[in-house]
Amino acid sequence: MDTPKGLGVDAERLFRSLSDLAAAVLDRAGSPELAGVGVGCGGPMRWPEGRVSPLNIPAWRDFPLRARLIERFPGQPVRVHNDAVCAAVGEHWRGAGHGHAAMLGMVVSTGVGGGLILGGQLVDGPTGNAGHIGHVVVDPDGPPCGCGGVGCLEAIARGPALVVWALERGWRPQRARQATGQPTARDLADDARTGDPIGRAALERAGRALGLALAAATALCDLDLVIVGGGLSQAGPLLLVPLEETLRRHTRLDFARRVGVQPAALGQQAGLVGAAALVHAGTRYWHGD
Amino acid sequence: MDTPKGLGVDAERLFRSLSDLAAAVLDRAGSPELAGVGVGCGGPMRWPEGRVSPLNIPAWRDFPLRARLIERFPGQPVRVHNDAVCAAVGEHWRGAGHGHAAMLGMVVSTGVGGGLILGGQLVDGPTGNAGHIGHVVVDPDGPPCGCGGVGCLEAIARGPALVVWALERGWRPQRARQATGQPTARDLADDARTGDPIGRAALERAGRALGLALAAATALCDLDLVIVGGGLSQAGPLLLVPLEETLRRHTRLDFARRVGVQPAALGQQAGLVGAAALVHAGTRYWHGD
Question: Using CA atoms, how far apart are residues A206 and A188, in angstroms rounded to an integer?
């Protein structure tokens, strides 16, 4: 069988796995009537078309995920958005952001992403890319970023960047590594918690960078609330205290002082809950078509 | 006659001047039927109440401008917003931003302010303070800002800050000063245009700071367009070339590259046009009540 131009076998195999998984889940749930299909997927993507090129899924490059799901689930609304946007939506719909008019939900993990809620509605932006807090510049002379820029928040505060920074400064991971294991940001956070000074400095540096970017977002968008989730946010006070200190130092106008910082309430489920909200609360969270 | 508590005689005198001016303008126009009253006023203010405390009008502190105008023009819609917001609205309604879905209009002058349009609508923010691009941090170790923070764009790129920076570095203004005159940012720009190296460096520094803040706004809000107005923007390429260079260096994601930078089309009229738009195009620009 011919593969459509530009789509490799891997892309098809991956979609079939996804499709089989969906079938199994629906079967196990007793084949309920569907309200629709909501998907959070790694970016970048063409939005609202839902042609996805997730950085961490090399098999899909410009893969027409939304179109293929429409074929797979005929007659259903199918809505695809960025995974960090979905996490923000999940927190606004059912999590720590419920009822807030103006919030930024962010995910600090392998990357640094986010989603923006203003006037109680998801802000998509003309290309679906609003909320890219990870590419706010926090140090113009800082490290190069995967985006091709310099000194972006993501280049400093993403987990792998912390690990590199710490190893360069002589961090010796405490925990015995698995045979193939590279040390992770979680290992670094664990070591920081037991007093490793390089680990603590790495988290403090990331926290300060986050605080600067959040101060910018607060001034620009008149935010009520910032929600911080993602793996690295599990580091807790070692990350969040310098974040708060920096944010407070740089948000001094009366209106900006009110901004609150909350940890994500839904944990790893936030993205799934947000994907559901694209369908179940589309008037607030889906303006794609 | 008693003055209401908290309002000095100066506040009343100033309001009477405003009221007399409005009467004279209406009279000269042949007493037309009004559609309403739109006002752009310096911030900060309580919004949408329109209680104003303009930094540059000490006579008004928490002055109930909107309420007083409602008394003065009974039965009319009266709408008051930040002057930089009105300038952005003016450019979107009738100027360089017409038809753009996502733009930031900014004013670089004695202060640095702005207004944010997303989805073709003015974004107010819960307290009416969205668009405060002047308080995006561009240099965490930079100069103190009037807001109480450190390293804000405004602390670096407002006209008077350029003058101070240049004088500290030995700038000797070329143009003969008037007896009482302090050198202004316009003098500095004039000298830069004729080759003064300190003047050029001051404008370049401001341009770079603007570029960094605009890169942040572009990533966060998925902007199509930035419009730069205000007195300092008259400095032209000496300001705008380093602005563009810095913006391009830091906006590398595909979606962000599309952002354009345009000079304001309406000049000093932008704020007035925008104040009119609060009334004449209220569905897009007024969500205050």
Answer: 12
Q: Which residue has 């199509």 as its token pair? A: B224
Task: Give pLDDT tens digits for A7-30.
Answer: 567 999 999 999 999 999 999 999
A225 backbone dihedrals φ, ψ, rounded to 5°: -150, 140
Q: Tokens 């809000």 belong to which residue?
A: B221
Q: Do B221 and A221 touch (CB under 8 A)?
A: yes
- Report whether pLDDT(A179) > 70: no
Here the tokens at position B277 are 């738009």
| CATH architecture of the domain covering A99-264 | 2-Layer Sandwich (3.30)
Segments making up each domain of chain A, as ranges: 9-84+272-285, 99-264
Answer yes or no: do B252 and A126 touch at CB < 8 A.
no
B124–A148 CB contact, under 8 Å:
no
B 18-37 near A (Cβ less than 8 A): none
Which of residues 99 through 118 in chain A touch B, CB cutoff 8 A? 101-102, 116, 118
β-strand B51-52 against A45-46: which pairing, if any? unpaired
Burial of A105-116, coded b for 16+ CB within 10 Å and e otherwise, reads: bbbbbbbbbbbb
Give per-residue burial for A243-273: e unless 16+ CB within 10 Å, then b.
bbebbbbbbbbebbeebebbebbbeeebbbb
Tokens encoding A185: 């940001």
What are the strands, taking DSSP E only, across chain B? 37-41, 45-46, 51-52, 63-64, 78-82, 103-108, 112-118, 121-123, 225-229, 260-263
CA distances (Å), A78 to each of A38, A274, A278, A288, in order? Answer: 6, 14, 9, 11
pLDDT tens figures, A87-124 = 999 999 999 999 999 999 999 999 999 999 999 999 99
State whether residue A123 sits within 8 Å of chain B by CB: yes
Separation of alpha carbons A177 and A183, rounded Å:
7
Look up the pTM and report it.
0.94
- Three-state secondary structure call for residue A191: helix
Look at the domain B33-95+267-289 and name its fold.
Nucleotidyltransferase; domain 5 (3.30.420)
Q: Which CATH class is domain B96-264?
A: alpha beta
pLDDT at A187: 95
Q: Compare all CA atoms of chain A with the CA of B47 and give the residue at the minimum distance.
A: A255
- What's the gap between Cα A147 and its chain centre? 15
Digit-coded pLDDT (tens) for B6-43: 456 799 999 999 999 999 999 999 999 999 999 999 98
